[in-house]
Amino acid sequence: MNKARQASEYLSQVPTKTVSLGGFAVHYLDRGEGRPLILVHGGGMWLYSYRHNVGDLSRDFRVCALDMPGYGYTEPLGRIGPMGPGTMSETLLKFMDALGIGSAVLVGHSWGGGWALHFAARHPSRVDGLVLIDSSGLNVRDVPEWELLKVPVLGPLLLRCVTPRVVAKRLERSYFLPGMVTPDLVREVLLPLRFGHNRRIQARISRDQDWRETEEALPGIRQPVLVIWGDRDRYLDAGLVSRFLQALPRAEAHILRNCGHSPHEEFPGEANALIAAFAKKAVCGTR
């Protein structure tokens, strides 16, 4: 693990910490002061996903970004049980408790958005607002490459075969803008995938992701919600935005033109401005 962390150019420049939360030693960063923002990455990524966002947002907020179980540099401390949205939600709860965070605005990308929604439904008093970036949480099928990871035996085998070329191909599908996928980006995404425990847990997560309970709970989420989406998303179609707006009582949406599945990476300046403005308004509304 230490060798892999040393190989990360990003981690050589960004101070991070680890906190034990029962079943996992969770890797995270904690920057800035003020009302807290918690950044939750999507499947296949780690807190590095928010590399273009932490600096700007930490000027006005306390920004915490964590590697969810099975991703990045978070490590299991014992036997792995079910890894569905409920487990991810409880990880977020333990993380907030450990860092002394009573409530926060949660920012979730892709599967991270689904986990944040599940958390908000279970622990509404801990959530001031939600920012959903090209988010999961609706009971829809994933793209074929992700559906294959759900197949027992096949999923772990596929994850063992991940190469720089495979990672680059997946990232190219994630972005719409040309030139986003660089050797540095591929290396940073691939490094944690070399850990056997991450591959095993990710295969389990893929099988256990069931968004039916999450979608059913959406009408009961009363916190303000900002939905940010790329109009050229090739993983989760922008047409899903209307379903979120219909289901969430206090949701608003902002669609970014000529943008793929990761607006916070493709258009970080615009995404940061939207998140900061929303978070300030959401926090004021809870006081």
List the helices and strands and how they pair.
Blueprint lengths: L1 H6 L1 H5 L3 E4 L3 E8 L4 E5 L13 H4 L4 E5 L8 E2 L8 H14 L5 E6 L1 H12 L4 E7 L10 H5 L5 H7 L3 H11 L8 H8 L5 H13 L3 H6 L7 E6 L9 H8 L3 E6 L6 H4 L1 H19 L1
Parallel strand pairs: 3-4, 3-6, 6-7, 7-8, 8-9
Antiparallel strand pairs: 1-2, 2-4, 2-5
Helix pairs in contact: 4-5, 7-10, 8-9
Structural class: alpha/beta
Gap from first CA to last CA: 42 Å
Overall outline: globular
Give the low-confidence spans: none
Please report which band the strand proportion falls in: under 5%, 5-15%, 15-25%, 25-35%, 35-45% or over 45%.
15-25%
Helix run count: 14
Specify the biggest β-sheet: 9 strands, mixed
Order of helices and strands: HHEEEHEEHEHEHHHHHHEHEHH
User: Which value, in Å, is the CA radius of gyration?
Assistant: 17 Å
Topology, number of strands: 9
Q: If you average the pLDDT, what whole number results?
A: 91
Helix content: 40-55%
